[in-house]
Input
Amino acid sequence: MIVFKNIITTSAFVLCCLFGIQTKAQNHPNLILTKASVAEMRSQLGKVALFDKSLADAKTEVDAVILIGIIVPIPKDMAGGFTHEQHKKNYTILQKAGVLYQLTQDEKYAVYIKNMLFAYAKMYPTLPLHPQERSYARGKLFWQALNDANWLVYVSQSYDCVYDYLSKKDRIYLEKNLFKPFASFLSEGSPQFFNRIHNHSTWGNVAVGMIGLVMNDEKYVDYALNGLKIDNINPNAKDNDGGFIKVAGQKTGFLANLDDPFSPDGYYTEGPYYQRYAMYPFMTFAVALQNNRPDLEIFDHKNGVLIKAVYALLNLTNFNGEFFPLNDAQKGMSIYSKELVTAVDIAYYFGNKDTSLLSVAAKQGRVQLDDAGFAVAKAIQEKKQTPFIKKSLNLSDGSDGTQGGIGILRAQKGSDDFSLVLKYCSQGLSHGHYDKLSFSFYNNENEIYQDYGLARFVNIDQKNGGGYLKENNSWAKQTIAHNTITQDETSHFDNDFETGSKFASELIYFDSSNPKQQVICSKETNAYPDTELKRTMALLTLENFENPILIDLFSITSKSTHQYDLPYYYLGQMIDANFKYETPTVLEPLGTKFGYQHLWKVGHSTLEKNETTQLTWLSNSKFKTITAASKSGDEVIFAKIGANDPKFNLRNNPAIIFRRKNAKDTRFLTITETHGSYSPVTESAKNAFSSIKELKIIHEDENYVVVSILDKKDKSTLVFLTTSKAESTTKHNLTIDTKEYEWTGTLLIKTLE
Amino acid sequence: MIVFKNIITTSAFVLCCLFGIQTKAQNHPNLILTKASVAEMRSQLGKVALFDKSLADAKTEVDAVILIGIIVPIPKDMAGGFTHEQHKKNYTILQKAGVLYQLTQDEKYAVYIKNMLFAYAKMYPTLPLHPQERSYARGKLFWQALNDANWLVYVSQSYDCVYDYLSKKDRIYLEKNLFKPFASFLSEGSPQFFNRIHNHSTWGNVAVGMIGLVMNDEKYVDYALNGLKIDNINPNAKDNDGGFIKVAGQKTGFLANLDDPFSPDGYYTEGPYYQRYAMYPFMTFAVALQNNRPDLEIFDHKNGVLIKAVYALLNLTNFNGEFFPLNDAQKGMSIYSKELVTAVDIAYYFGNKDTSLLSVAAKQGRVQLDDAGFAVAKAIQEKKQTPFIKKSLNLSDGSDGTQGGIGILRAQKGSDDFSLVLKYCSQGLSHGHYDKLSFSFYNNENEIYQDYGLARFVNIDQKNGGGYLKENNSWAKQTIAHNTITQDETSHFDNDFETGSKFASELIYFDSSNPKQQVICSKETNAYPDTELKRTMALLTLENFENPILIDLFSITSKSTHQYDLPYYYLGQMIDANFKYETPTVLEPLGTKFGYQHLWKVGHSTLEKNETTQLTWLSNSKFKTITAASKSGDEVIFAKIGANDPKFNLRNNPAIIFRRKNAKDTRFLTITETHGSYSPVTESAKNAFSSIKELKIIHEDENYVVVSILDKKDKSTLVFLTTSKAESTTKHNLTIDTKEYEWTGTLLIKTLE
Output
């Protein structure tokens, strides 16, 4: 197809409008499908199993809906309610029906689309803003413009597929009454929604851009790519999630939304849950641009960040392919979502034809009904897939990669996978949590220590219309809800979004060069004034432990004395603690604000001496033990989530909290073991006890901390942790008690005989 | 082989002893394996896949242990501890090594057994009672004689397998130093253990009987079959679980233990968890008796109760084959346990060669290494298996079937199974719970309403040595821990074992003749003086509901006024309640005794008028709603298990409790729906709301209760429940508001247009 430069296109556009000329008639579909690709796919029908299955699935689904007839209700409900769900269903079906029309050439699909579009075109001009007033940017079909944008992204594709089927008169009618006002409403009519750096805006940009490409209307394409020139957005305005609408001077539009929130490694600053959500418009519009504006070389943009983003997403998952629930994220969302099917297919086809992506697609069990999906299905048919192996990796955050990041360490023992996720990135826009240096830890798909994720039941109407719950702010975003340090019972940055948005944590080093000794070290100097937090985490495979162990060293230096709380949100049934503790007969919340009001204090201990404190629990048929090098005066608190939760919105999970009062410069040290197993069928408990007898720090200075682990066979292991900048080639030497130790790398393990 | 009548055998035994004659030399093995069966199995090695696999598994396991060498430690530990686990491992391996010796004729197994037996024979005469003093019947190798009996049941088989391999001198040494003193200790030496009606005694009887058969020592065989003639047991003595040791005049021994606790339907009065445990000795000794005393016709005893017991057990399981946790029962125990492999193989071979048992065996994926297992494996190889279909059924309790029972109603919707288990049986000996008319309800393997089961972590040493926890008495056995009525915050029978043991509930009717309208009705008149409890439960498949619904009508008639609490222990995340309730800022226990001290009161409502109260929750990706016809003044309490639990021994599950105060004759009515689904991947919530708008009782008299269900489409359904004796052929007529209704059967469903 012909590519115009912007200025020429605009002129052409003006001419077309003036004279009603359709310069591109007979060139549809041209958006995701093309005439050539449709011909190719049609010629191969019945020959490529996964494609045929996906086509058959779509046919079954759409045929059933067609039988029900056209339902286009006057908008009324919140998410989860009838009108919301119906309009959502409509756009999904419309998109699929379009593809089915092209691939089967069965006219019933075109008829259905036409009737549906006319129903919308009849209603749309009559619609005021949606009656639900909760959004900072209300839609017309839905309570928020975001969902309207979703609608248009899908329906543009549908319209493209029947463009040639429709008469010119029909097209003019539809564009005048439905598509143009729709696109104008989402752009000019909703600048606070459209002209931002935000996943909402990405959807908005793409919606407007896609319909612009179909209609060959350059105004909308320009809006989409480059944003509105004038928006009159108040620089202090915030959205419903408390995020700023716009930072002064910020570029907007699709290209800016691609440049800004993605790091050079493909990490999207909001976190994988929202990255997944944004991937569909990003990838789909990229295909549309590749088909219509190859000059943009969109897949090469920012060193191919779109394709890198797909790999980042696939790596930000646990054993079962579920995304790590960083920031606001609903657990369970996974590589099996439709967005990831899209992302993987496109990354294969428009990327390097990486055969390891085929094994992901094969797991997904379905493909997109387009060129990319077809190519994937065909390659799978030809048995080209190779394993997709998730490795330890560090993903930078920030558009230039300098806003901290996410470190993932992975170790294997037999068929068991252990994954550590350390979060040292930036705030992550309005969906970010106040949890610098927090972590989660997995054994296969099971959380040893969980990140709580969001406090929301997405699309469950009874729970606040499926929207965010107030406990998302009062609990899920607070620091104490995470596996990191809270100082003086106050969240990082005093829970202030503006402050939090200014800073990111800093990587000191990441070293996964030796799979048996992987370490990451990161620091945070802004969460609390005058206090530096530094976390060093090592995933070690040692001979005297059944499984890889996790060493967690949290170093704190401050100019004044504070109370520090370090929680570990374990999951499962408590088995035993090796220290004395008390349990109250009446439960009270642990505090009054910053999330503490949501924790019941269910047990408590004050330690009378320095000691090795241990808690063992059982989950997923395996025992786990956390061992802490506790100090005299330390408190250990058993907590349970759920206080001040009048609607029972929270999950009542447990935590163990290590508390140290009146501390200035101090260190928390723990080791987490996974050991043994329990079967209720054989009733056999194997290796139910920790292997650690004593844990202590035997040396600490600015650059090194030496940990001594005495196991139950009285074998002693020293672990030399480096807490300042180091690489796998760095040489160190340290003298302890006249004995000199020399080593190269980030870590030394020394077994004493 | 030759069968002697008792008197002759006894004489023969005396002669043999006097002259040291081994009349049966060269006739071993004769216990579970026989010379003939070994020859047959050996001839088929390599030809029967499941048998070969089971043999290979045993070989792998035993070979690995043989490499480690003989470990026979001085007894010291409780369950879960080293010496306990080692002796347990030893007897398991010895039994398998014996079979391997016979089937492979590899002498290394015989050598291993010989060395191990000699190690035991050297130690045994030196052993005092086990140092742990917690059992009413201490063992020598283990803390309780029960485990010693386990040991001998397995080791007898091992000895039998190497009997001919050993020299006469070796045998005399082993029998004198190990087997005879061992058998004497378990019988004459432990009458309080041996001479009871109890699963402990069954193990004791069988242990002594099996070694008696191997040694051809009629004294022990007679002890085993008929018990000790003199035992001097104090008639008031109780065991550790609070059960009476012995009821005056009661017969004892294996035959009495077969007659008494099994009902004619094969239900074992302690419940399926302990039935499973007892099945191994019951079935194994039955085979040994069949091989040695065919005149006893043991498999025909009491109309074939042993085989019936296997069917009862298989039916007392959920979708995944896990036993319903009635009475003391650890959840997760299932048809995959080794005891059930034994039971199923033997029931096939010594029963009617029922091919449906083969499909169970195929699921189990392994067979016993004996005639029965071989026959099963061979039949599976020949593809003879047919599906094992679990149907609705009623199992009587009590040796003559008159002590109440267990009713199971099962309904299917597509591939989904719904199972209701109503418990209206007798106390169930010392492992019984005080929960007359309690129930549990399953959707496939998932509990919609759970039975808590026991409070114990079997074999987890840190939890009270793996033994029963004190919360088993203070919580798990109490009435309020179950889905049934508690009157005046006092458990049934005032939590008195002696009183509870005198009574059973009574079946009024059980009708599963129409799979869409299944009903059970049962009453309990002794749990509280002067009060009659009656429960009518119907599992109905109705057109206006997505899945089968459960109607639960609890009718109470009393001579005085009381408070009634009816809890439902649902599992999952609360989604919504349709009534106003308050949540406390500080949690207090719901009461002070009878289990109430273990419930946190987390929410509370007092209803101001008669109303339809609903609670919806989400579990296993499906929504559930309980709808109650509540009355003005009723309280609804949200509770959570876990108060007064200083060792965190309890699971912190929720309950909704319907409370009615100052009631005399009254009825509780609820309906439970399973509806819709939620997927965190598509984030789609389907049918998330109950279909019920209003629920009420529109007629109630002594014989009938008519329930009116108004659905959300304003369609009204009347359900006529019969609460007095009825059958599927009974004719009824009832006039309400001058309108006459006539029907036949136990239930009428009338849809009003």
In short: Chain A touches chain B through 52 residues (CB under 8 Å). Residues 1-30+69-239 of chain A form a domain with the Glycosyltransferase fold (CATH 1.50.10.100). The first strand of chain A starts at residue 393 and ends at 396.
